[in-house]
Amino acid sequence: MLSQLAQPLLSGTLMGGVYGLIALGLSLVFGVMRVSNFAHGDLLMIAMYISVALWEGFGISPYVSIFGVAIFMFFVGVFIQKAAITPILKSEKERSPLRLILFTVGLSIFLQNLVLMIKGGAPVTATVPLSTQTLPVGDLIVSIPRLLAFVLSIVITVILWFFISKTDTGRAMRAVSQDRETSLLMGINEYKTYAIAFGIGTVLLGLAASMVSTFLYAFPTMGSSYTLRSYVIVALGGIGSIPGAMIGGLVVGIIESISAQFMPASYSEVVIFIIFILVLVIKPSGMFGKERK
Amino acid sequence: MNNNIVLKLDQVSKHYGGVAAVDDVSLQLHEGEILGLIGPNGAGKTTLFNCIAGYTKPSSGEIYLGEKPITGLKPHKICKLGIGRTFQIVQPFGDLSVLENVMIGAFCNTNSMARAKEISEEILELTKLSHKKNDHANSLTIVDRKQLEIARALATKPRILLLDEVMAGLNPTESAQVSEMVKGIRDEMNISLLLIEHVMSVIMYLSDCVCVLDHGELIAQGCAEDVTTDERVIKSYLGEKYASRNK
Amino acid sequence: MKIKKSTRIIILIVGLLLLAFPQIVQNDYYIQTAIMIAFFAYMASCWNILGGLAGQISFGHSVYAGIGAYTSTLLFIYLGISPWLGMLLGGLLAGVIAVLIGMPTFRLQGTYYTLSTIAFLTVVRILVLSNPTILGLETRGAQGMIIPLVNGGDSPANMQFLTKTPIYYVIIIMLVVVAAITNYLKNSKTGYYFSAIKTNQDAAAALGVNVSRYKLICAFISAFLTALGGTFYAQLAMYVDPSTLLGNEMGQQFGIIAIVGGRGTILGPIIGSLVLVPLQEIGRALFGGTVQGFHLVLYGLIMMIIVLFLPDGLVSLFKKLKPKNIKKSTNVNQLGANSEQ
Ligand SMILES: Nc1ncnc2c1ncn2[C@@H]1O[C@H](COP(=O)(O)OP(=O)(O)O)[C@@H](O)[C@H]1O
Ligand SMILES: [Mg+2]
Fold first, then answer.
1. I want to staple C91 with a disulfide (CB 3.0 to 4.6 A). Which of A78, A233, C43, C227 is the partner?
2. ipTM of the shown complex
3. Structural domains of chain B ordered from first start
């Protein structure tokens, strides 16, 4: 029994680290701005398609294009922030206006169907030489690209944690997330801080997308399940908490991969939903730490 | 003012994490009384209101409306029992007109549109907002919005009204205007008031008694003149001013 | 209720035109298109009761359409219950489920409710897709169920019609009913409470509004009416399947149409449907069936543009023409100047 669970436990942990990284971007944006981004998973999808296209079209491995994709995604994030989110925030009085939910849902529908229209619905992936490499550890098999993605996710998380806690920009982000009014008095440029937070969020998506594009399939509608999963992780780990996102990611990854042993693969979203409802029922507001206006 | 106690707080505390935002506060509000609640920023005044009005559950202690314990009841229940409140940051229903805003409050005691409209128009007459009843709430000036906030709470027919810094952001003329209104509420509608206020002259003018909070603790209580000469009170205020100058 | 004389005349003229429409055009394709426009206007109006009046945004509302369609169809196949009755039972079931879903999620910030609606739709779809039976009743998974014909499809008592015209009248009546319900709500205590909840829950609670109770009431009404539309759709196609009714696309469309047309208004969902549904037809005419997703790309784009630049939807274009509202907007400008101080 134990040996039967060891493999899914391992795979779940590896995948969970990547989930954590993906959720981290959302956590940051949600934490700093209280902005709901329903296009989070779709931006991941876009970045994966770019990685795959670079590999298929030009033979550039995702492990090489990763920085290019990340930088591109940064500008995508800053653009969305400046063109849409900031204007909406400026014109509404509430901190997280309904219009932002509506806008990002519109963006999500747009991106999903744009890709569907251009590339069709068939799943794509970048099959690089490393994609199929494995490493036997005792009875277990470790997929090398997954291991790599896990390790990089942890490294990136540590770097980000360092950035948030030690730099002025990071401090400004924390200040804005805690108390908008005081931070304004302290002379922090609120909207610039938001743009940076959103940009970092999309950079993290670009990094994650490049790494997973060698072993996961991208398809136009994949985004919604990643958006939901990321929100579950954020609710579990606490809004804006960096270690929380990683721990939440690991929990979700492990639960998913172990439950996949007992039910059909298509049920993974059912499992996420059950976790989601459980989190909401058991700790309706507490999981997000302090809820403040 | 007579000696009936309408609201009683018995050793109420509220902790956030390790911080005691309200620390073991006991106080009483008498029928027809205006009780001032003062204290520096972050003293726990708003938190105390939130405890009374059901927005947060006290960590310990009991709150009584008359004889009835109301600790931990939901905000709408507490409103129905007769406690109205305003918010430090005014929260109008911006899409609705002034009249409609007040009607939301009036629906507390009636299901009929016509009756709610009637109640609201009376209240708007009293609060001198009648001429603006069809304006959008978002288009009001700050003083009108504060008055609307009070009008809305009055429409629920409260026995007790909690006012959180209604004078903040008003100039002296406006502040005097609102003060008169508050006095009128007590004298004509026989409502007891708990009043958070920073402007000392307003407190001196309006309140019968004053409570002073500092770091969540009730450090002084008594009639307005006595309290303002109390050494601890002066210290906590001077301390605050000093601190804010050095920010 | 105060309805101005001019408004009454307009309503009368539009009503007569709607009644006479099938006789005027005498063309199945146009009647079919009109049915689809009215259907989406109906569904968007149901969505609007929850999303527009009370501000609780659902992008999985088609789940209630699915529940309605499956319930009435199963009742018809297994027990011979007419869909006219089955649709009400489906509506009740959908309403109860909406309340159960709302209870844990309505307590939270709006984001989590919206997420739960998308998640719940996905879960129900997966369950229906991957199981041949539900509660022991044969639902045939992805294949879907064909509704058996009675008397060769000529059985009004079982909501089966040989021609499009009676179907057209059914959906027009449903649309009028939902518009009347919306109008009633907007002018009642319940509707006032919904709009208070939409703008500020804390302030609403301070005025005695039982916020979660009213949200649940609203979710019930909206889900109930949506389920009726689901049965209608099933009887129109004489077929129920999970990928259409329980699809993401359907779930998104109801919301998009109401948002583009104008949230919280009676006319908004109707205008939204008049504008957006024909786009599907145009897409089909341009690309045939070869390009997937074309109209949804447009929907997404239009939705973003509307939310950014015309947050009150297309209806607000008409309202802006009225002088009364010009005065309002100058007031808002003055407010801007005040808050700068
Ligand atoms: N929801 C909350 N979570 C955590 N701390 C809070 C919360 N609300 C208030 N506090 C803290 O409680 C203290 C008292 O705040 P408050 O009641 O707003 O003070 P006042 O109204 O007297 O200015 C402050 O230190 C504040 O930071
Ligand atoms: Mg305060």
1. C227
2. 0.91
3. 5-89+158-245 (3.40.50.300)
